[in-house]
């Protein structure tokens, strides 16, 4: 069966060579992220996913925070140099999306449905993962490259302070995005028999 969705998902790749040559306006990208997250599924329709879309100096600030946090723990100057180069590639993009989970929503559901209590944090992770993939594919459809980074919880406090985020919003990932300055490498797949099983 042919699927335009699968064609789009195949187009979605991890892009590290990002630039700021994006024709779309920040407001249009914000609207795209907003609508995509809204249309992503969540258990019990909990809508626990939060997204903060940052541009310009605000986006740069995310990567300044990451660099400062890593500088405090990476003591080897040579190792830190390669770390700085990686962070600079994220900073070079057009913007950054922060993905967060509203833990007040999760806590409320745990109290409301105690028999499912241990599952709600898992389902919240599934929700934010689904939103990330959906937004990533939506950006790819527009010719915008992105990658998904995870510097949380190392940067959580500084991010919350810098952007005045609610305490209940737990940082889950950071997505730098921008123009595609170099394509992704060839993608390798595991053998199908290790991944899939057909049962009739």
Characteristics:
200 residues, five-stranded antiparallel sheet, alpha+beta, single chain
The quaternary structure here is single chain
H-E order: HEHEHHEHHEHE
* Residues in β-strands, percent: 15-25%
Terminal Cα span: 18 Å
Shape: globular
Low-pLDDT runs of 5+ residues are none
Output the radius of gyration: 18 Å
Biggest β-sheet, characterized? Answer: 5 strands, antiparallel
Question: What's the total number of strands?
Answer: 5
- The number of distinct helices, counting runs of at least 4 residues, comes to 7
Report the helical percentage.
Answer: 40-55%
Overall residue-averaged pLDDT value: 97
Structural class of the secondary structure composition?
alpha+beta
Give a verbal description of the structure.
- The chain is α+β, with helices and mostly antiparallel strands.
- 46% of the residues lie in helices and 16% in strands.
- The protein is built from seven helices and five strands.
- It has helices spanning 4-11, 26-38, 56-71, 77-91, 103-112, 120-141, 156-163; strands at 18-19, 49-55, 95-102, 145-146, 169-180.
- Strands 1, 2, 3, 4 and 5 form a five-stranded antiparallel beta sheet that branches.
- The radius of gyration is 18 Å and the shape is globular.
- The chain starts with a helix and ends in a 20-residue tail after the last strand.
